[in-house]
Write a structure and sequence with these properties.
380 residues; alpha/beta; Oxidized Rhodanese, domain 1; six-stranded mixed β-sheet; globular
Length: 380
């Protein structure tokens, strides 16, 4: 399929083409090009929505990086007679194109901060502060490495840390830490550009993680995530930090609980804080623990911010990199399951979250404590 750049596309009349996003739902949830419609690549042939687009309109397909859209066969029967194009560099190319347009960065920073203080205070800052207080995540004299991957969650977490520090209820220090595991030049530039626009003074260090896991066929994302955490702990400790903060949110927590039961035959959760087993004196904290993903997305869209979700070079269908070893399809499947259950039970998310706070050991057949198994028959 012929390619068209985003710059060439902008030169066309808006009503002369239709953008079609062929990525999976996990990626489209992180943003789409304005005006695009979503039709997953495997559903194109039987799509009524595609068939209803006027014949005189150009069809411009895009994926994450431009590879899958480029491979669409435009001689297929359902595309016969249509002018079809693949958007060069895909959604990532669209995001990068915005970096070339100069913007008032000071105005963008102020808008982002004011939206946290006012419009989204209840949805974002209040649950952030509540998690910090409930789980004692920030303590007097802490030096916290706020780990920024460049995505929406970690970027917002950095702004929330700046806001809570401004309240000065506890004296603590912050280092905004970005690890470059082998990003290409454009992806790293986007992270730096967003950090500058949001007023986040990042400390960047390099690693070779992408190269190290490049030849791994089984669970490369799991290995990558584990290695990232180790590098972050090591660098944070070197910089005098005693804690690292990660941007996992409420939805990550409930999805992990449900996936553990369905796919792992176990009941466990993503903890709000953990002692490091390999780096003495270090802790991991998750201050976004009570923040809903929908509210994070709303803040991102309100401020017209664009973030790369996964900047690895394995595949343009990588929906997310998680530390639990589960594939992106399983997490997306679980997200859909929760959404379906919510249609008949509006409290389903709250109930899943609370289930790991209300474990009745008298009714549990077996459980593990410090690696030791305890069976109810032992004391029956």
């Amino acid at each position: 399929m012929k390619e068209i750049t985003y710059e060439e596309l902008k030169a066309l009349a808006d009503d002369s083409y239709k953008l079609i996003d062929i990525r999976d739902e996990g990626l489209t949830a992180y943003g789409m090009i304005p005006g695009a419609i979503h039709i997953f690549v495997d559903e194109l042939e039987n799509s009524r929505e595609l068939a209803e687009i006027p014949q005189d309109k150009k069809l411009v397909f895009y994926c994450e990086i431009g590879r899958r859209s480029r491979e669409i066969d435009d001689t297929l029967e359902f595309l016969e007679g249509r002018q079809c194009y693949s958007l060069a560099e895909g959604y990532v190319g669209y995001i990068r194109s915005g970096m070339k347009d100069p913007t008032d960065k000071e105005a963008k920073r102020k808008r982002a901060e004011e939206s946290i203080q006012k419009k989204y205070h209840k949805q974002l800052f209040s649950p952030f502060a509540k998690a910090c207080k409930t789980y004692k995540l920030i303590e007097e004299g802490d030096h916290i490495a706020v780990c920024i991957s460049g995505g929406k969650d970690s970027m917002l977490m950095a702004k929330l840390f700046q806001e809570i520090k401004r309240h000065r209820q506890v004296e603590f220090d912050l280092t905004f830490l970005v690890m470059d595991p082998g990003y290409n030049r454009e992806n790293r530039a986007l992270i730096e550009s967003n950090a500058e626009a949001l007023g986040i003074p990042v400390t960047i260090f390099e690693s070779t993680i992408f190269d190290a896991v490049d030849t791994i066929e089984k669970n490369p994302c799991y290995l990558c995530a584990r290695m990232r955490r180790g590098y972050l702990y090591s660098k944070a400790k070197e910089l005098g930090c005693n804690k690292i903060a990660l941007g996992h949110h409420y939805d990550d927590v409930i999805e992990t609980i449900l996936m553990g039961m369905i796919h792992g035959a176990q009941i466990q959760t993503m903890m709000p804080k953990l002692h490091s087993t390999n780096f003495e004196g270090m802790e991991l904290i998750r201050p976004m623990y009570l923040v809903r993903e929908a509210d994070i997305c709303a803040w991102r869209d309100y401020n017209e911010l664009h973030f790369l979700q996964c900047a690895c070079h394995f595949t343009d269908t990588c929906t997310t990199c998680h530390e639990d070893g589960t594939s992106s399809s399983k997490r997306l499947e679980t997200k859909k399951l929760i959404a379906e259950l919510k249609k008949t039970n509006p409290y389903i998310e709250f109930n899943i979250f609370k289930s790991v706070e209300n474990v009745n050991l008298d009714t549990v057949i077996e459980y593990k404590k410090n690696g030791v198994r305890h069976n109810f028959m032992d004391e029956y």
